[in-house]
Write a structure and sequence with these properties.
This protein has 134 residues and is α+β, with helices and mostly antiparallel strands. The protein is 22% helix and 46% strand. It is built from three helices and seven strands, in the order ααββαβββββ. Strands 1, 2, 3, 4, 5, 6 and 7 form a seven-stranded mixed β-sheet that branches. It starts with 9 loop residues before the first helix and ends in a 6-residue tail after the last strand.
Length: 134
């Protein structure tokens, strides 16, 4: 049984999901700090917002993926920082047919003066969902 959504990064996660599903790679990349580092599942490390935007653009172009994120836990840290984690599911149409990937993620974010959050470090793992084609 999957853990319940009780994380508190609701606006950040919702913005990520909404714009990813709409194909707005540059908007999703804008949720990351300029010098962010991201390790997306099964991909090389992306350093900086421009590299993250390039990865997201290529990922989204591969089959109109639809992302669902479950924000499971957030730890608030001193100085306006937070660690957040949960799990996700991506459904897409790959050249080999429909595909579903699931995995977990963790991120480190800082709160900005306007009370929004920017992601500084992001890591996810994943693989095909049981019973689906890789």
């Amino acid at each position: 049984m999957a853990p319940p959504d009780v994380g508190t990064m609701t606006d950040l996660v919702a913005g990520f999901v909404q714009h990813y599903n709409m194909g707005h790679a540059s908007v999703v990349a804008g949720l990351f700090a300029d010098s962010a580092i991201a390790a997306f599942a099964d991909n090389p490390l992306s350093r900086g917002r421009a590299a993250i935007a390039a990865y997201l653009t290529a990922e989204i172009a591969q089959g109109s993926p639809q992302l669902t994120v479950h924000d499971v836990h957030t730890d608030m840290l001193p100085g306006g920082w937070a660690i957040d984690g949960g799990w996700y599911e991506v459904k897409a149409t790959a050249p080999s047919g429909p595909m579903t990937r699931t995995g977990a993620y963790m991120l480190l974010a800082s709160q900005q003066p306007d009370k929004t959050w920017k992601i500084h470090w992001f890591a996810s793992n994943g693989g095909p969902a049981p019973g689906t084609k890789p």
